[in-house]
Amino acid sequence: MKARWLLALAALASLTAQAQYPVKPVRIVVPYPAGGGTDIVARPVAQKLTERWGHSVVIDNRGGATGMIGTELVTKAQPDGYTILFSASPEIVINLHLYRKMAYDAVKDLQPVSMGAFTPMIWVTHPSFPASGMKELVSIARAKPNQVNFGTSGLGSPHHIAGEWFKFLTKIQIVHVPYKGGGPQIADQLGGHTISGIFTMPVATPHVRSGKLKALAVTTPKRAQALPNVPTLMEQGFQMDITNWFAVSLPAGTPRDIVNKVSADVNWALNLPDVRPRLEDQGYVPAPNTPEEFGKFVRAEIEKYGRIVRDTGIKLD
């Protein structure tokens, strides 16, 4: 009898803690270095959650292995809501197609919470490059095989996938130049060390606006609000739709009421008038949704990237 009472009291205490969540500081793991695209979206959300919850919500940057180090950390955390993942697309839907062995299964080990935002990728060149659009870039590349290159933030990144997909669709031979992040990549692009590059919008947008870089295309079906004069790939005759997105997940097994609360409050933060416009001006499109909607989106993205990787033959190990 006493054992049953103790179990009942423990269950009641657990339910009370869930109802009052959070009762202590919360950690948001960003599996990329500070200052990158994921970090830029996560920080204002963490600030607003701190204000709403009355407890510190701290960003923990755990970069490495295309997001997999930080993501693995979250999959092994206690499913109590106090360790949250704010990720990009590679560690959730791309890496499983590129690596034979991974330390986690994103579908089984993570609970979808909400989409955060997405951003088109933008293909740019140094202003001295003669192409003013993607058809001209293709013509130059065909005339000079392997003499045109494109930089990206790294192997296996959405930018890398986009470049390889474009090569596959156009049958051109251009050279991939991977960097260890967008910072070194943009420095070399501005310096003219790479002919072209594929960037997340917030990284390249200021330099396109200043005229230091020339934009050829964005990778989504609709033009980007931050740079409305830049045409899409589809407008130029290339059937490609690919984005870089950022989203929130929790360890699998997290109680449903905590999942729902985190989702609702993240969505609230993203829609605030001092958060949404600031992100939009940098090239992000805030796109909060429900755990069910985000889970469905993830499954569709896994299928999509599986097809792209099979078609292009990309393998990293």
Give a written overview of the molecule.
- With 317 residues, the chain is α/β, with parallel strands linked by helices.
- The protein folds into 2 domains: 25-118 and 245-312, Bordetella uptake gene, domain 1 (D-Maltodextrin-Binding Protein, domain 2, 3-Layer(aba) Sandwich); 120-218, 3-Layer(aba) Sandwich (D-Maltodextrin-Binding Protein, domain 2), CATH 3.40.190.10.
- The protein has 12 helices and 10 strands.
- Strands 1, 2, 3, 4, 5, 6, 7, 8, 9 and 10 form a 10-stranded mixed β-sheet that branches.
- Helix 2 (37-53) links the parallel strand 1 and strand 2 (57-61).
- Helix 2 (37-53) crosses helix 10 (256-270) and helix 4 packs parallel to helix 12.
- It is globular.
- The termini are far apart.
- Mean pLDDT is 92; it is low at 6-17.
Secondary structure elements and pairings:
Blueprint: H1 2-20, E1 26-30, H2 37-53, E2 57-61, H3 68-75, E3 83-88, H4 90-98, H5 106-109, E4 110-125, H6 134-143, E5 149-152, H7 158-170, E6 175-178, H8 182-190, E7 196-200, H9 201-210, E8 214-218, E9 243-251, H10 256-270, H11 276-282, E10 285-286, H12 291-312
Parallel strand pairs: 1-2, 1-3, 5-6, 5-7
Antiparallel strand pairs: 3-9, 4-7, 4-8, 4-9, 4-10
In short:
By secondary structure, this protein is of the alpha/beta class. It is 45% helix and 19% strand.
Structural class computed from helices and strand pairing = alpha/beta
Spans of at least 5 consecutive residues with low confidence: 6-17
In CATH, the architecture of the largest domain is: 3-Layer(aba) Sandwich
CATH superfamily of the largest domain: Bordetella uptake gene, domain 1
Q: Tell me, briefly, the overall form.
A: globular
State Rg.
21 Å
Fraction of residues in helix? 40-55%
Q: State the assembly state of the protein chains.
A: single chain
CATH domain fold name of the largest domain: D-Maltodextrin-Binding Protein, domain 2
Give the count of structural domains.
2
The proportion of strand residues reads 15-25%
- Written as H for each helix and E for each strand, in order along the chain, the element string is HEHEHEHHEHEHEHEHEEHHEH
| SS summary, helix count | 12
The biggest beta sheet reads: 10 strands, mixed
- Give me the count of strands: 10
Separation, N- and C-terminal Cα atoms: 57 Å
The residue-averaged pLDDT reads 92
